[in-house]
Specification:
Length: 285
């Protein structure tokens, strides 16, 4: 939910910058129209673009209110508690290999620890059930003294031989053995699921890192260059309003793609930490 709020904040920031650009285009169109070198429909198109961005801002504000309400519910806080916009520090992608991550997951995932405890408990109960069929040996010491007589002492040793409960205890032991085997098989299935979770989360993290690199270093600079060239061409009369607006939309799309890729990377880190059951950084438990 925190990263959803961070993404919403970035979208609102991009919306604000896009509206400023659209307002610049609208001012340029109005200036061309006033000078007689532009047409009225160009001004209208640019103004419609500004209005569309205003509508988008209203939607983003509503989305933020819904996210804040959800965060307050998750924190058991009053629904009207104010939450500031996050200032995330999207760090670099950790250079993690799959093998050590899997080894950590097998040690730290609480589900596996719980299943191992269930298996040990069932094995102990099966062992105790088998020992119920063993004879019980009992010993006692007694002393007796009558009035005026000498004290006498004695020792008694006895035992019980189970006859009727042997079959019942054998069935109980078999039931606990079956429970222990079931817990062992559940662990095998859980390990397979953990391996898939870790591999999937790591793939998502690496994919997000490649997207950040591609969009941030290739797509976004080219989109910015295209918009600046289109705006300059429109001012010089060599480009039309449609090309300028399209270039602005492409720049906005690239900005959002970069933000989404960065947030997706942070969410993938959280997904990977959940899959291994421990933080990616810090001391290993």
């Amino acid at each position: 939910a925190w990263w959803m709020l961070a993404m919403n904040a970035r979208r609102r920031e991009v919306n604000r910058m896009s509206r400023d650009l659209a307002s610049t285009i609208a001012s340029a169109a109005l200036g061309r129209y006033a000078a007689g070198s532009g047409q009225h429909h160009e001004v209208v198109r640019a103004q419609v673009e500004v209005t569309a961005l205003d509508v988008q801002r209203i939607d983003l504000d509503g989305e933020r209110a819904a996210i804040v309400a959800m965060m307050n519910a998750l924190r058991d806080a009053p629904v009207d508690t104010l939450v500031d916009d996050p200032t995330p520090d999207t760090g670099s992608t950790p250079d993690a290999a799959i093998t050590p991550l899997l080894a950590r997951a097998m040690q730290t995932r609480p589900e596996l620890r719980g299943m191992r405890a269930m298996q040990d408990e069932a094995g102990a109960m099966a062992s105790l059930a088998r020992k119920e069929s063993y004879p019980d040996v009992m010993g006692s010491v007694w002393m007796n003294q009558n009035f005026g007589g000498m004290a006498t002492f004695g020792v008694m040793v006895g035992g019980t031989i189970p006859v009727f409960g042997v079959g019942r205890q054998a069935h109980r032991a078999a039931a606990f053995d079956a429970r222990a085997n079931s817990a062992r098989e559940d662990q095998t299935a859980m390990r397979a699921m953990i391996r898939a979770d870790v591999a999937q989360a790591l793939a998502h993290l690496q994919t997000a890192a490649r997207r950040v690199d591609l969009v941030g270093n290739v797509a976004l600079p080219k989109a910015r260059e295209s918009f600046e060239a289109s705006l300059a061409g429109y001012g010089a009369g060599t480009a039309d309003i449609i090309g300028v607006l399209d270039a602005r939309r492409a720049l906005q799309s690239a900005e959002l793609m970069l933000a989404e890729a960065r947030i997706a990377g942070e969410l993938s880190k959280a997904e990977l930490e959940r899959a291994i059951g421990a933080p990616l950084t810090g001391a290993h438990p």
